[in-house]
Write a structure and sequence with these properties.
Helices cover 22% and strands 33% of the residues. It is α+β, with helices and mostly antiparallel strands. The radius of gyration is 20 Å and the shape is globular.
């Protein structure tokens, strides 16, 4: 084999690897990161993988407030039934540097640690896909409380593409007429 040919084969392999990497780049990888100012505000929990701290909640939402450079105030607002009063849990989050503002560490009650990762955000910040790294937990957020079924199904598929067990996602009732519908969680209280 000539020296030119020996050089061409590794070069071609490298070029093919680079092209394959470009072909698999997804929307969330292409951006420079999450714009924290745009991410702040109210996000309705459209769906989640249920776990003890959120099971049976309706009309749930997260409210994020930028407090300083990398600290965020977190308010989780929910009801245990549509006739029940709203309840609030508060936490503090810190954005991990070097993550494009995608990874946060949280403290509930000042001591209970949790993690949060923004997998993907719509270009107009109308929806977001979230997970808890290292755990089988995930959420679909939206700025509006109601989501079109077709968009919801597309987002479920995107969650699956991110490695989330999307079969476990359950929709969170945001309106009373959603209670009892297929695919929606049951509230703790009627």
């Amino acid at each position: 084999m000539t020296s030119t040919r020996r050089f061409r084969l590794p070069s071609m392999a490298l070029l093919l690897a680079l092209l394959a990497g470009c072909a698999t780049t997804t929307h969330e990888d292409a951006g420079s990161g999450i714009d924290l100012a745009r991410f702040m505000g109210r996000w309705h929990v459209i769906a989640h993988i249920p776990y003890f701290a959120e099971r049976g909640h309706v009309a749930s939402r997260q409210e994020y407030t930028l407090q300083d450079d990398r600290r965020i105030g977190v308010r989780y607002v929910y009801q245990e039934g549509f006739a029940e009063p709203a309840q609030v849990r508060e936490a503090r989050a810190k954005v991990q540097s070097g993550t494009g503002n995608r990874e946060w560490s949280l403290r509930f009650y000042g001591v209970i640690p949790a993690r949060f990762r923004i997998l993907e955000v719509a270009p107009d910040y109308s929806w977001a896909l979230i997970d808890y790294p290292g755990r089988d937990m995930g959420w679909i957020y939206a700025r509006e409380p109601l989501m079109d079924d077709a968009l919801y199904q597309r987002l479920v598929m995107r969650m699956r593409d991110h490695g989330i067990n999307a079969r476990q996602l359950v929709r969170v009732p945001q309106a009373p007429d959603q209670v009892g519908r297929e695919g929606f969680a049951e509230p703790k209280e009627p």
